[in-house]
Amino acid sequence: MTVWTVFEPDEDGERHTTLAWADGFVFVPERLSWSALLLAPLVLLRHRLWLAFIVYVLAQGAVIAAILTLDLPDRAFALLLVANIAVAVGLPGLRRAKLLGKGFEEAGCVVAPKLEAAEQRYFDARLGDIAVARVPLPPVGGARINAAARPAQAGVLGLFPEAAR
């Protein structure tokens, strides 16, 4: 299960429908970005984290310059993976900082395995039964089963059967 941080855009008068309002929300997964381990610069560009991309390129250039200047062995090029690991771990924080800088507000957190499930859970909790009118499903066997009503036991409140104590 993944924890998703939900960001809500600033309120503006242009959003007239619930669908247009819901499209403005951003869900950020709070997990390691596996794709950033090998493709960190592309992941930064995909999320339009320009400043982080520039810092990444400068850091990688400094590592390469240090390796060549200090005449380190070829194994030292493994140091280039340190920046990729940093991007993979810090990507959710970078995305949160960018959204907060753009004026988004943190609206809450949702736990769900996939983005679609996170959106469904968040908007169900946020809007309640207003968003979607639920249609009752027919029973699975075709026949309706009526459960017998249990008689209420008066005087017992809670988990303990002895109400007098």
Keywords:
12% strand, transmembrane, elongated, alpha+beta, 165 residues, transmembrane helix, DUF2628 domain-containing protein
Explain this structure to me?
This protein has 165 residues and is of the alpha+beta class. The protein has a domain at 38-127. The protein is 44% helix and 12% strand. The chain has five helices and three strands, in the order βαβαααβα. It has helices spanning 18-23, 36-46, 50-69, 80-101, 115-127, and strands at residues 2-8, 26-29, 105-112. The protein has a three-stranded antiparallel sheet with strand order 2-1-3, sandwiched between helices. The chain is elongated. The two termini are 45 Å apart. The chain crosses the membrane at residues 49-70, 76-94. Pfam families: DUF2628. This is DUF2628 domain-containing protein.
Topology readout:
Elements: E1 2-8, H1 18-23, E2 26-29, H2 36-46, H3 50-69, H4 80-101, E3 105-112, H5 115-127
Antiparallel strand pairs: 1-2, 1-3
Helix pairs in contact: 2-4, 3-4
Would you summarize the structure shown here?
The protein has five helices and three strands; from the N terminus they run βαβαααβα. It is of the alpha+beta class and 165 residues long.
